[in-house]
Amino acid sequence: MTMKKPCAAFDVRLAEMRTIAIKTSVTWFLWVNMLFSSFILGRNYFSAFEAEVLFHHPAALLETMMVFDLTLSAGVLFIMRMAPLQNAHWLGALAKWTVVALSLCWAGCFFVLIVSDDVRIIFPSAALLLFTALISLYFDPKVLLSFILPIWLTILITSLFYRDSLTVMNGLQWILLAGLIESGRRILNRWFLLALRREQENADLIQQLGLLANNDPLTGIANRRSFETQMDHAILRHQQDGKGFGLIMLDVDHFKLYNDYYGHQKGDLCLMAIARALESAALTSSAIVGRFGGEEFILLLPDADAESLETAAQNIAAVLQAQNIPHAASPVSDRVTVSQGLALWQPGVSARELIAGADKALYQAKQEGRNRYK
């Protein structure tokens, strides 16, 4: 199973999913901790046979730890349940610090059990607790390690000083448990990353399909379908605020002659340059630039009046003149020029009527000699 090199978007998504996952899974983890704490507190009562009641040292520390575990788990469960914003960032931080606090609590518990020579339930309790942590926290190695490491080190170091509880069999059990937990963590985390990567790939594919559906593949600006959709939205918005907007439809002068003279590859580069010119000549960042078909382009300027519309048309001509694209086959100029038709939207005018008005003005500009706006 191969893993691709992570990208920035995937890293961000991974961090988000880990935050969501820990807020979701920690609830179950806290309930399990409360169950285990209750068992430790009443283990002598739950036993099927009459077991000797051992006195622990230091006195009452074990009970204090388990009461703290119960209280902390119940309190955090209540806070997470009653939080007004369930997606708040601080809930994830609270869950992580709670995991650390519970780990220290259980480390103290196992220390007391080993010191007091009460080893009956150390291995099964620790094994179940660590596997519970694995199931709940496998998706975040740092958080999982913050729970496992204090417990593991406490049991290991305390057993070295109290060798009566450390036998060859016990040592093999702990080594086997460590191997199982680590291998399980690797497998689960790998599947988690794989599922997340597939989700990211699907999201990227949907985004790419959206771009293909809404953008012109050559120039990258809006295609006709997308432009008309955005224009309909602009009409609805301006009908509500009472403002108008402007439309500029333009055509590259004698573009067929340009293609015949320079070839279609140069023609494509010319269209791309014109699209960039339109984007830079637009008066506002909210302007919508689209390719209407062939060498025809269209520009929507929100909140524009007649004066600003003419200014935009002059800017387009100036930017194209500055680009200085040769057009040796043009009878109008030795450089690429455009003819432009201007139209202002008024309340009650449909999108089709507005485009027809701009197209009519463009036709007049062509009839009067091209390289101008009307």
UniProtKB/TrEMBL annotation:
InterPro entries: Diguanylate_Cyclase (IPR050469), GGDEF_dom (IPR000160), MASE5 (IPR033444), Nucleotide_cyclase (IPR029787), Rev_trsase/Diguanyl_cyclase (IPR043128). Its cofactor is Mg(2+). The chain crosses the membrane at residues 20-40, 60-79, 91-115, 121-139, 144-162. Pfam families: GGDEF (PF00990), MASE5 (PF17178). SUPFAM superfamilies: Nucleotide cyclase (SSF55073). The keyword Phosphoprotein does not apply. Residues 243-374 form the GGDEF domain. It is an enzyme of class 2 (transferase). Keywords: GTP-binding, Membrane, Nucleotide-binding, Transmembrane, Transmembrane helix. It catalyses: 2 GTP = 3',3'-c-di-GMP + 2 diphosphate. This is diguanylate cyclase. It comes from Lelliottia aquatilis. The lineage of its organism: Bacteria, Pseudomonadati, Pseudomonadota, Gammaproteobacteria, Enterobacterales.
